[in-house]
Amino acid sequence: MSGHSNYEPKTGIERWLDTRLPVVRLAYDSMIDFPTPKNLNYWWTFGGILAVCLAIQIVTGIVLAMHYVPHVDHAFASVERIMRDVNYGWLIRYMHANGASMFFIAVYIHILRGLYYGSYKAPREVLWILGCVIYLLMMATAFMGYVLPWGQMSFHGAVVITNLFGALPIVGEAITTWLWGGFAVDNPTLNRFFSLHYLLPFMIAGVVGLHIWALHVPGNNNPTGVNVKSKEDTVPFHPYYTVKDGFAIVVFLILFATFVFYNPNALGHADNYIPGNPLVTPAHIVPEWYFLPFYAILRAVPDKLGGVLLMFGAIAVLFVLPWLDTSKVRSMRYRPTAKLYFLIFVVTCLVLGYCGGQLPDDHVIPGLSTFRLFDADLNSFVWLSRIATLYYFAYFLIVLPILGLTETPLPQPESISSPVLSHPANAPAGAAASPEKRG
Amino acid sequence: MADTVAGANPDTHAAGDDPNRRDFIHIAAAAAAGGAVVGLAWPFIDQMNPSGDTLALASVEFDLTKVAEGQQVTIKWRGKPLFIRNRTGAEIAQAVKDDGASMPDPQRDEDRHKPGKAQWLVLVGTCTHLGCVPTFGGGDYGGWFCPCHGSHYDVSGRIRKGPAPKNLQVPEYTFLSDTKVKVG
């Protein structure tokens, strides 16, 4: 997509096509000959894994749309028909439903990898922002997809999420009515969610194209965070990373298949097998697991508008991250203090996810009542959520901006190749006699 | 290539000059196209608002004799649940007594029912927080309790505790007779 091309058409047809639409050249330059840092570890395989996830969701989704009926009176029954009567319908639906969870597992690992190795820093800011856009589109797509079976969780999930927009002053009510196409979540809402659920994955595919384009301009970041200095630092994408990615994809698909074939409903909620009833809300309503951290942030704030703003802010802060982190050192491998804060950040996200699935007033430590602080006992999930929310934002808004100015990073290697070449394991026999040359 | 094309279609005025005829054509064409796009955008936005048939189903009539004292009946109105509660004397007394209590959205009980019909409370049954359906008789105040995020409403449907910002909404309704109401 950029830079010098080494592609040489070998056959007459390729030469003919290359002067008219150099699509083979594009594929060759970006997937075969593309110079890739030679030290990428397995955390770098999740890009390829995500591409596979998107392809699986689109293929299974198109098939499901052939059998699904987007109408409040038929949606639930048509999903059950897919499960019971359509040939292999159970397999395709379980692939699609679990595929969403697998997609989010992979994207969260992919995002955390970017956070740890500083992949959002110059010159990759646009690449990072495009990734954030993809993540937002994924969340919208997943939410609307979850509404389609029209079970109890589908229905009341749609009610709660669309009502979030009602928190906006003045225009809130008009916006929710507009989103619903009525006075409540009803058939018009289901219809438009189906339409958009079909559209958005193709928009994701489009932004993924831009994401890969933006990746191929500066090239991959790598675990050292040090720029590629010479041809010595890279290997061609094929066969080195096609094989490495391929192996990771196979391992990932084993995990995927384990869910699909042995525990297909483990990641869902039983209440969604009850047809949606607008008159009764399930006693404990929770979103899908991948939204739980944001749900915990929403509930941590006792004010409606404040909760909604903070929840959206949790995603918005990712967009400006490249300008919040002041450190010149990309990889946290050479930032021992940042590494510690990062570890706490990962734990915080998991804690928020756990809190999102619990009732806010329940005790974190069972049976222990401490003292009441404002509106709840200190030993409650709502207070744990508040502490975790505070750290989530502090990590981006306080820790990363300040730490970059105050910390003393470890020395970075001269180049990607140097720590590999100076590693004791690579030293020729007798080199131990000159330890001063080790990095 | 470049030197043969250069000057073939000269733009004779330098930057900062008064706009000439060509600038005017550019601006007029862009404005016409932009205006057309903006004008066409509205139908595509407004199509998502409630349609004529949805608006036509906007009112219901209800026979109050179906609700025993101390009970509540839930009916569907505009796709949402509607609570019709027949309050006991004790509940009304409690609601009036609480008029002076501190509340997020202060309102007197008599402003929440029709004059002389304190027994009948007609409310939109969606929590003003995020739209879940509160359960009858639950919570710390004996009115309703929202299971989603823990909002407590009293027997007048006023928010007393929890994240909801407003009291349960009283819809527009009229008594057609002593035993019949029309909502909407």
Task: Identify the notable features of this structure and list them briefly.
heterodimer, A: 439 residues, mainly alpha, Cytochrome Bc1 Complex, Chain C, Helix Hairpins, two-stranded antiparallel ribbon, 4 strands, disordered C terminus, B: 184 residues, alpha+beta, Rieske Iron-sulfur Protein, 2 domains, four-stranded antiparallel β-sheet, three-stranded antiparallel β-sheet, 4 helices, 10 strands, elongated
The end-to-end span of chain B amounts to 73 Å
Tally of DSSP helical segments of chain A? 16
The multimeric state of the shown protein is heterodimer
Q: Compute the CA-based radius of gyration of chain A.
A: 25 Å
Number of strands of chain A: 4
Summing up helix and strand content along with how strands pair, one would put the structural category of chain A as mainly alpha
Low-confidence stretches of chain A: 430-439
Task: Provide the number of structural domains of chain B.
Answer: 2
What name does the CATH topology of the largest domain in chain A carry?
Cytochrome Bc1 Complex, Chain C
Strand order of the largest sheet of chain A: 1-2
Largest chain interface and its two residue counts? A-B, 35 and 28 residues
Question: What summary fits the major beta sheet of chain B?
Answer: 4 strands, antiparallel
Please state how the strands of the largest beta sheet of chain B are arranged side by side.
5-6-7-8
